[in-house]
Amino acid sequence: MTIETERLILRPFRAGDAEDMLAYLKKPAVNCFADMALHSLEEAQKEAIKRSSDTEYYFAVVLKDSGKVIGEIFAHPDEYSPDSFSPCWMLCESCQGKGYAFEAAFAFFDYLFNEKGARRIYAYTEDCNKPSQRLCEKLGMRKEGEFIEYISFVKNPDGTDRYENTYQYAVLKREWLGKTQKQ
Ligand SMILES: CC(C)(COP(=O)(O)OP(=O)(O)OC[C@H]1O[C@@H](n2cnc3c(N)ncnc32)[C@H](O)[C@@H]1OP(=O)(O)O)[C@@H](O)C(=O)NCCC(=O)NCCS
């Protein structure tokens, strides 16, 4: 599956994407992606090959002009509620602040709602992650809750778990259609 927007192509990962992936996953920008860190080109190659079989829900975000992979967006049907999806999005640092994340996420949401049976899309974001919160809001997601010391992805210097305060945002298909059909 390939999704095209004005400036981007969203397409499944390929083995040849390893170098671009390593650039933004060497040191994931946020704690919630800490376990996705890649430590070598070899590791990135294995990961790119693994991802390449997921052709419906895991997309590389590619610049149309250069063919460069600048990040990723993915979401799978929830195990116990398969019409619900929780997307993850990430761009390399030099491609942030250019509207690419919104462009990719808008197209991905449209795809999930209109082609993959999504009824509800929800996202978690750490309370300090303003760019991700802003993106949720621009996508028309409602802030549904704030969970205090919800989850731990990393350790404190003394070895104890460091817990994150987390917001949840969501948008329903009927809300999405109401908003996008007016545009
Ligand atoms: C979260 C993340 C994907 C958001 O990316 P982003 O580039 O900030 O998001 P957007 O695509 O919405 O672009 C942001 C800005 O680009 C600006 N912009 C510049 N040129 C633009 C253009 N041609 N078209 C549209 N917007 C443009 C916009 O004005 C926008 O700012 P605004 O929201 O104040 O109006 C990014 O910060 C990231 O990868 N972070 C690390 C990973 C992460 O935190 N993931 C989420 C975990 S919960």
Word description of this protein:
With about 180 residues, the chain is an alpha+beta fold. It is about 30% helix and about 30% strand. The strands form two sheets. The protein has a five-stranded antiparallel sheet, sandwiched between helices. It has a four-stranded mixed sheet with strand order 5-7-9-8. The longest helix is centred in the middle third of the chain and has 16 residues, at about 100-115. Coenzyme A (COA) binds near residues 98 and 102.
In short:
With 183 residues, the chain is α+β, with helices and mostly antiparallel strands. It has helices at residues 18-25, 41-52, 100-115, 130-138, 173-180, and strands at residues 3-4, 8-12, 58-63, 69-74, 84-85, 88-91, 120-126, 142-155, 161-172.
CATH topology: Aminopeptidase
Helix content: 25-40%
Mean pLDDT across every amino acid position: 97
CATH architecture: 3-Layer(aba) Sandwich
Largest sheet, in brief, is: 5 strands, antiparallel
Poorly predicted ranges: none
CATH domain class? Alpha Beta
Architecture blueprint of SSEs:
Elements: E1 3-4, E2 8-12, H1 18-25, H2 41-52, E3 58-63, E4 69-74, E5 84-85, E6 88-91, H3 100-115, E7 120-126, H4 130-138, E8 142-155, E9 161-172, H5 173-180
Parallel strand pairs: 5-7
Antiparallel strand pairs: 1-2, 2-3, 3-4, 4-6, 7-9, 8-9
Bound molecules: coenzyme A (COA).
